[in-house]
Structures are given as C-alpha cells and as structure tokens.
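Appendix B, Record 12. Input sequence as logged:
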Amino acid sequence: MNVYEDKYLREKVNRIIARQKEGKIVIAAHKDGSGLPTREDLGQELTRAAYPYDYAVGKAGFLKYDSELGAYLFTAKSGEKLPPVLANYRPLTLSEAILDVQNRRINIQSGETNVAFTGVQPWKGLYDVLREVNEELER
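Logged structural output:
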C-alpha cells in the first residue's frame, strides 16, 4: 500500500487545533484544503479595520491575520449575532483516510466515526483528492 501524507497540511492543522483549544475561531484566508471557513464564507461585508485588526466583518466582529497559521483569527463583537457559518463552527480534528483505488472509495476514520466516500477519482493527484475530501467533510 502506498502511503501519502501531506505533512505541511498536517502541521498546519495541528497549529490550528492548538489555537482552537485556546478558544480561538480560525478563518482561512482562502480555500486551502484545511476545511476551515474562509473570509468569503462569512457572508458579510469586509472592510479594512483599525489597528490591531485587519478587517471588520460587518457588525459581527473583526479578523486579525496570524502569520504563524497563515489564517485569520475572528474576534466577535459583544452582543452581535455571529455570521451563520460561525454559528455552526466546529474545531478541526485529524483523521486517517484509506483510498481503495479499485473500488474508487475512500474510508475515513476519526475516533469512533467512520465515513465513506464513493465515486472518488483516484487518477487525480492525491493532494487534490485530499482537498476535495476535506471540503466535503466541512459540509
């Protein structure tokens, strides 16, 4: 069996998980395969904000770029309603996926949860397959 591991993504996700355990809401700068919501997913008007923040997210809060994560940290304004994508925000978890090329299937094990994807396109690059799986799991 060939083992493929995106070590960069694993390290990045571990850093994100550490920040989430501190109670931080992490927002991706763009679709990066991490499964995080992006700035655009917030569904609010983004405007430049005053220091120490980078963007104001409508009336809901602020984004500040964290260069270590390569992502933004969201700070909510007290008493304001969160954007819908953040109301259901869930911390990331690392999982293991096994690709069955012959049956075009991926089985993912995360703790006691097992998820299967069928119709996988194994001829694509493994990085692309991994990104697509992460995006589906985000939903």
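The chain has a mean pLDDT of 86.
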